[in-house]
Amino acid sequence: MELFNEDYSWYKGNLHTHTNMSDGLISPEETIELYRRAEYDFIAITDHNVFYEGSEQDNFTILSGTEEHINDYDARKAFHIVGIDIDGEINIPLHATPQDLINGIIQQNGLAILAHPAWSLLTHNDAINLRDYIGIEIWNTVSEARSNRGCSSSFIDTVASNTSKNSIKLIFAVDDTHFYSDDLFGGYIMLNSPSLSTKDIITNIKRGNF
Prior knowledge:
Elements: E1 9-14, H1 28-37, E2 42-44, E3 55-57, E4 60-63, E5 65-72, E6 77-84, H2 98-107, E7 111-114, H3 124-129, E8 135-140, H4 141-147, H5 154-160, E9 170-174, E10 189-193, H6 198-206
Parallel strand pairs: 1-2, 2-4, 7-8, 8-9
Antiparallel strand pairs: 1-10, 3-4, 5-6, 6-7
């Protein structure tokens, strides 16, 4: 059985990246150049509550993205949802729930990914009770570098064990770059795809071809 298409190419990408459009230290242009020089083929720019419009450059693709979040300081947990390949700004209602974040991303035709649940101090039930997100970050470089909570792999099996819902999630490793020092180039996916077009990248992420 062939797991991946041998006629496709392999492309390296980071799906969680911050710039000075929110709380990252450098500009989107500098971010793109850093990842290009490190021989990445694509990234998603996912600044907090900001829409970044993607583009296809010469041998490098930037996916549109955002990161929507709710920080519950009383419960000491955070719900952060990365949205990639979104069409525009996410419309989040006042007093939004975590599910509203996912729904807003889907309404903009994007893929919703549960970000760094271990860093966020989420429980497995928190992840189980959310609906319609496509995957979970099981590795997050900045969370490991700054808090030793970068690994969220236990969430995958626990969420998948809930047979009452569509609970088989895709598995992602990301940088979640903010500081551009100890949070660079630690988490990525290798995508099996016929090209670096946005359409092909997203199609093969959805299919789990990485």
